[in-house]
Amino acid sequence: xxxxxxxxxxxxxxxxxxxxxxxxxxxxxxxxxxxxxxxxxxxxxxxxxxxxxxxxxxxxxxxxxxxxxxxxxxxxxxxxxxxxxxxxxxxxxxxxxxxxxxxxxxxxxxxxxxxxxxxxxxxxxxxxxxxxxxxxxxxxxxxxxxxxxxxxxxxxxxxxxxxxxxxxxxxxxxxxxxxxxxxxxxxxxxxxxxxxxxxxxxxxxxxxxxxxxxxxxxxxxxxxxxxxxxxxxxxxxxxxxxxxxxxxxxxxxxxxxxxxxxxxxxxxx
Length: 269
Prior knowledge:
single chain; 2 domains; five-stranded parallel beta sheet; 12 helices
């Protein structure tokens, strides 16, 4: 067991709440962040997030054992933080986004948060652990989640059908109450992205301040343009039409890739 005196920030969700922009901001400013905290973004913990998505799909003891094993493996392999903190940001730490593979809500999030808490307690002596979840107004989130599924999966249903099938997918308040119970005595901070519009660094600024950085520290950080923003509705409708009209997976994927590439080239010109 090792000791860390720095703050450990676990940004564990949710999807479509500015997480890509948070991660891009942290990565872009990693040199300025380095004296204060180590950084673990989702592409650095792929094995772990894969296990967590698996548990949200198949919430059984074997899937949970895999989560526990990969958490311990990740933390045991982590270099000594010394007196620095740690910021982890990966929306998949809450499992799959609802609407995928018939996952109705974020019911796995509290179980996964408890596993994260227990792993850090096993690894460190009295870790200064803080959980953070960015959220979004329910109607806006449901609309964004639907089109994300259209873009990234073979979803063919209408938006109205999606809303009717997953009415509790954006019930973040209830989920966070369960997360708080699961990770007690550690804190859970709720960051609505609507409250971050005036912040120079967006929701990433809230994470950085929670990690102990001062206003003077943050003046050195550069803001970036929002990441993974919504595609124009015309492009999204094209993708939906392709989902509905091309049954072959590889052909559909190629056609969608061509649409997205054409949009990128048009936006860049």
